[in-house]
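TODO from last week: model Nucleotidyltransferase family protein.
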Amino acid sequence: MSGLISDLQRFISILDRQPSVRKDLEAVDKLRLPEGCIAAGYLRSLVWDELHGFIRRTVPEDIDVLYYDPLHPEEAEEKKLDARLRQLRPGLNWSCKNQARMHLVSGSAPYSSVEAAMREWPETATAVAVRMDGNGRMTVIAPYGLSDLMNGRVRPSPGCRDRELCRRRMEAKRWLDRWPKLRLEDPPGDHRE
């Protein structure tokens, strides 16, 4: 348990050192989205930059904003939210995704929450999200914990149906070119030779 607390403290400390992270989270919080949070590559890249001692932060391709609203599952609603976030924080590529409809994209059974949707993501290190609580503190959603992210381990998540997707994404996105200390590992319990 102490390792989890240590990973959580390290993670929050990394986020706290980036003033833009708090501003981005506050912008998302202003939308009052159910389970509204920032997730995926935005956070992953920030941590991996820190693990590699980079002074310049990797510019995120987009900022994935997740929320869960079964009453408004239309993609058009997501586009409206993207536009509102661009007004609040211009110059950033916002990408809002209502996890109440993402099962249609992934071919899964309907999800019951943001965390449930994240359980099917390709890598454990990517399945991490952060949101603001009612007191302005960051809270973390990490269905597979933070250890892989914080230790530069890339492995398929147990909930991902395509076991090779993690490896293909790592190669296509050229993660090892950018972050050479990363390690691709088999998932827990997977003992292929």
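Done. The mean pLDDT is 91.
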